[in-house]
Each structure stands twice: as C-alpha cells, then as structure tokens.
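Possible regression after last week's pipeline update?

I re-ran a chain I had predicted before the update to compare outputs. Posting the input and the new output here so someone can diff against the archived version. Not blocking, just want to make sure nothing changed silently.
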Amino acid sequence: MALALSAQANPSNPVRVASKNFAENYLLAEIVAQLLEGEGIAVERAFGLGGTLICYQALLNAEIDLYVEYTGTLSQAILQRPELTGREELNSALTERGIRLLPQLGFNNTYAIAVRSQLAESLGLRNIGDLAEHPQLRLVFSHEFLERGDGWPGLAKRYALPHSVEGIEHALAYQAIADGAIDATDAYSTDGELSRYPLRVLADDLAYFPAYMAAPLVRTDWLEQAPAAAAWVRRLAGTIDAATMQRLNAQVAVEGMSYAEVASAFLDAQRQTLGLSADAGQTPTTNFWPQLAGHVLRHLQLTGLALAAAILIGLAVSLTVFANTRLANAVVYFCGLLQTVPSLALLALMIPIFGIGFTPAVVALFLYSLLPIVRNAVTALSTVDPTLVRVATALGLSRWQQLRYLRLPLSLPMIFAGIRTAAVISIGTATLAAFIGAGGLGEPIVVGLSLNDTDMILRGAIPAAMLAILAEFLFAAVQKRVSRGYQ
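New output (post-update):
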C-alpha cells in the first residue's frame, strides 16, 4: 500500500511502457501496464515500436522507461557479444549505457524454424540441417531475422543452407505458410500460432540459437526516480513459464481475445501470488468510435503540419531557385535523394535526433512531401512559354510582376498537382509513424499486423484511404478558387 501511495505522489510522470511490434511483446507490455495501473500508477503506452533497435534507441534516449527484451537479443543483436549469456553478465555490459535488465519473467522464447507438417512428413524433415538437402524449398523469414547476427546469416553458415531467402512481416508468415505460399519461416517457440496451424518446429540439432529469456529492460535513472513502480514490475519475475506464455499468446491469436483482456485475466489469476489490489487486472474499457476519432485526429495533425510546412518551404525554395537552372536541378535532386530513403528507415534515423513520437514523424513526413511540391513547382515556373516571357518583358513588367501575373497563373495546375501528390503520399506514409509511437491510423494497422487480423487492419487502412480521397477533392476545390483570383 505504501508503494502505491508513493507512486501516486508524482502523477505528472507516468511510466512510459513500450513494446515491439509483435504479439507477445504487445501482450507482455500490456500486462506490465495493467499491473501498474491497478496499483494507482499512471502509465503511458508506446506499443508497436518498429523492432528491437527502435525500442532500444528510444530507451537510451529516455523516450521510454521500459520494455520487455530477451537475453539472446541483447547479447546477439544489441551488444553483439554472444559470449554474454547470464543476466549479471549482461547487466555488467549495460551499466555504462545507463540500462539495466530486471529479473527474468520465467520463460525462454527462443527462435525456431517452422515448416508445414504435411511438407515435413513428405520430405522427412526433422532437424534444421535437413533443409540443406532441399534447396528448392521457399524459405521466407521476418525482416529482422534476416538482418540479425543470430538470425539467417549465421544460421545459413552453421547449417550450410544454400537457399535464397525473402522477407515478410512476422505476423503474416504463419498464414502464408499455412496457405502453402511459403515452405518455412522463423518462429518464436512460445508463439500461439504454433498451436493454430499444422506446423512442425524443426529441431536445432547444432544448438545454434541461444536462450532468449524474457525480462523487463529499464533505464537505471528510472529505477531511482520511480522505485515504487520498479518494485511492482519486479514482482512479475518467475511468474510466466513457457507453457503459460504460449497459452496466453494462443488466447490472442487463436481465440481472438484482445491483449487487454488476456492481460487482465492473467493478472486476476496471479492476484494472490503478486499481492495485487482489487483494481489490478481490470480490462481497460475502450469505445470504437471515440478511439477511431482519436486516431483520425492524430493522423490529420501529423499530415496537416508536415504538409503545411512542405508547401510553405517547398514553394519558397522553388520561387527562389527556379530561374537558376543549375541550382534548381541540384535542389530537385536533393529532394529526390530524400525520397529514396525507405520510410521506416527514415523514421528510425530521426530517433537519435528527435526521439520517438510526434516530432520525428512530422519531420520525416515533411521531407517526403518536399519532392513532388518542389519538382512540380520548379518545372512549371521554369518552362513557361519563352515567347510570353519576352512579351511581358517588352511591356515593361518587372520580374515580380511577371511572376505574379504570368508565371504563377500558368503554373498553378502543375503546382497543385504536386501538392495533391504530396498530400496523398503524406497520408499513406503517416500510417508507418505508429512504428515510432506517433499514433494515428497506423496504430490499428500495426496491431492488426501483429495479430494477422484483417478487420483490425481495415480499421486503419479504410479511413486513411478516405482521407487521401478527401484531400484530393479539397485541394482540387482550393485550386479552382485560387485560379479564379487570377482571372
């Protein structure tokens, strides 16, 4: 009780709980969040961040306070020191970074390679090494697994696998393998989908994969600032074994329960073990329409601010450089280079500078919106009929008057075409902002991907598409109105 009162003493600093963008991590983060909320501790959720490095970088930047990590991921992918296996060894290496791994939750969620049961039976696949005898098989792995040091590169080398591989979103891989679209993929040993689909997990006969013990990863200064909250999180140590975790995951993936419902039921069952109060483990109530309205409003804030800045700065730059061909080409080329950076990569690159959330998302969307606006404006302004320009000069019009009465009126259709293109790009790309905790209509899409839930994905995709269509109509109407002013 004293711990809860201590935590309530500073309600202005909620505990910022984050998760990666896969189902189990969502669920564990929700368990932590509900545990704290049930004891009167305010929580701010930043769920669905786009992968290990984004979560870890956000923790280093003090953008979040904690998320659940795995020991194998820490040693292999983050620290790149595979010899570190124990919690104390890992904490010794993490101390200088201001990070600490709390006691483990109790289960090992190691990587595994899964194939369709029917295929495994027909080809006699029992171990991962058996795949080497069948180079024709289509192996498709999650994008993170393809890049990790403890993922495909090392696995292929250890088992001498000759296959060409492709990438896929982890949550979509199970449905793809069940449909026969792919033959094998990476899995987590506690995934609920393993009990949903007819799959066989191949034995890691050469013991390639290390242990991945789940545990909360926190900032050291947060432990000092919020000892009450940290004490409650520590109580989760040893409460979730592998069988329990797979059952909880299956309740989400197979039975269709929400993360909040499963987390609430788990905490209710563990009430006595954890010493929880009566309010702990109560499912937060959510209403679809207010939630959707909040996503739409945040999406409009993200795209509106980014697009407004791109229009003002893009047109100002275009008006300044269009007369200088060499300079104009350089500016357009630079904007084009920005467009070539993959969306999620650009968002991730913003984190060390701007952190996570609203600001880096707006900056990234602004950069993506520049190219169509600047390219169209520069092209339109610089390609006005030279004969008309000479006539205007002969009539004694100054450069400003030529711009005001000749170039801009003739360039308006192309300029607005660039703005409309930028608006559609911004609205679509903004859905990825959910991967860095910016919210918007990407949030239900990210959750839907983690659950392989088409309905949830459509809750974000359809409103986003409607916003893009409305933006087209809006700017078309503005174009007509502005054009009348020049007539």
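Follow-up from reviewer: compared with the archived run. The longest strand covers residues 43-49. Marking as no regression found.
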